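Before relying on records like the one below, remember that each one covers exactly one chain. Contacts with other chains, cofactors or solvent are not represented anywhere in the record.
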Amino acid sequence: MDQYFFGSVLKYITHYLLPGSPDENLEICWGLIQAGYRGERGGRFGNLRVAMYDKDGEFPRLKGKAGEIRHFGKALLYAFENLMDHESQLHRQIRLGLQYSTEIEMIVDELSGIYP
C-alpha cells in the first residue's frame, strides 16, 4: 500500500503542487527528502527519478526495494511538510496519511525485535 500512496504523493508534488516541470520539481523534492533521512538507519533511495513512480496509463506506484521504501515515509513526510499549504484541507489530509504511515513503520520496527 505504501508504494501506491508514496507514488501518488510524489506525483502530486511534482506534477501539480510545484510550478516547474516534473523533473525540476523532483529535484527540489529530492533535496528535502534527503534532509528528511537524517538520523535514519536502514535502506534509502540513492536516487529518485520520475520514471520510478509515474508511468503512462498506470496508477502511481513507487518502485524500489522493500528496504528502500521501508523508511521512505518519514523522509517524504518531512519534504511534504516543507512544501504544503497549511491552510489546504487536502494537504492536511495528505500529511495525516503520511504521519500514520510513519507511525505504522515505527510499530513494525518495534515489533520486529519481539516476533522472529
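The helical segments are 2-17, 22-36, 66-70, 72-83, 89-112.
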